[in-house]
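User: Fold this; tokens only.

Assistant: Input:
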Amino acid sequence: MATPTDVDDPGRRPDPDPGTGGVDGRPISPGGSTPARRSADPGPPFADWVRRYRWCLDALVVYLVIRAIGILTLARFADLRDITLGKALTVWDGQWMLAIATHGYDGVPASLTDARGIHTADTAYAFFPGYPYLVGFLAKLPGVTPFGAALTLNLVLGCIAAVGAARLGMVCARLMSRRSPIGPAPERATGLLLVVLFAATPMSIVLNMAYTEAMFCALATWALIGILEKRWLLAGVMAGLCGFCRPTAAVVIGVVVLAALVFLWTGRSSAEVTGADRARAVAAIVLSPLGYLTYLGVVWAHTGSPTGWFRIQTEGWDTEFDWGVAAFNFVNEQLVNSAEVAPTATSWIVLSTLVMLGVAVWARLPWPVLLFGSLLVAQIVLSSGLMMSRPRLLLPAFVLLIPLAMALARARPVIAGLVVVPIVVGSSWFGAHMLTVFPHAM
């Protein structure tokens, strides 16, 4: 059985089979975190398959139900605001994604502009190609439109991210069971509650929009699982693909590379770490940055400058590292002077994320997960740009909610319900408000 120190001990390699409930490869019993012994007679193959993958099926059901609530709420808001649901799901950056998918980077209509209202030959290159190109590929299938391809793709990617969230929650609950001040928590319940919190983050509506959040969350979550379970090829491939998705992939890449280096260093004299293990860790180091560096190279070739992408982003969207000055001024101004719901709520979301980060440190979240969450929050909060996009950009930091998921898993079901239901309702309302009432980009 895996112990809470497995993530730090390169000599212990849990079973990599993602179809099981525990880190050590044994299924988790439906009633809690205790690994169940497999019956001598597993029964019919289908029943055995359902038993083995019950955690996965539960995660999908929970995710789809919560996202359906969000979509229905948005549909009601859209109807009352005299706009279509389709338009609400493809606003702002969604228009860029669909345009790149349809016309390519050089054929994007001039009506699409940056935050200054300017369109140049370089503007479209601010958006990474992974998601729009995949949408464009699917749209070439008979009877498939770019709109349909975008929303269907994100439905699938969101489900993959949800299963990853459940798996990550179970793995972290196992690893934190003895060393965290929270104490042991039922693994399966922790995983499902993390799926609930992931599906009900304040701007989780973007998981169903023509945006990159679903893709990024799916790739980043499974990269973290690869690290914790020492499945280095999984971690490296996920990080490499993430590099084609969005600039925050730099965080995923950094964590995977560092974790692989730590594994190689701590396992250099361990007899239990084989040459194949070391080769896979080296492969993860090599694979991780390929996607990110490839796209930066493409933009370099287009602009003639090695810093071409950063220039486009800074000039078009005023995004640059400013040590949190813009975020501090925004939060201070909105909490003191604003009478609008959206900017005030955004300010509280930023502050709440910082509190979550502090709790994650206190709860001793496994260091790769904690480092990912910390660097992601730092990259978003310590940069300038459109402040109203912060709730969306901070969505992948849902991993910092693992201590809350563990606490809710330990609580009585009534108490957990009293916490979860308002979160789901509030998320559905906030997402619909931001897309139909709030007039500016997010």
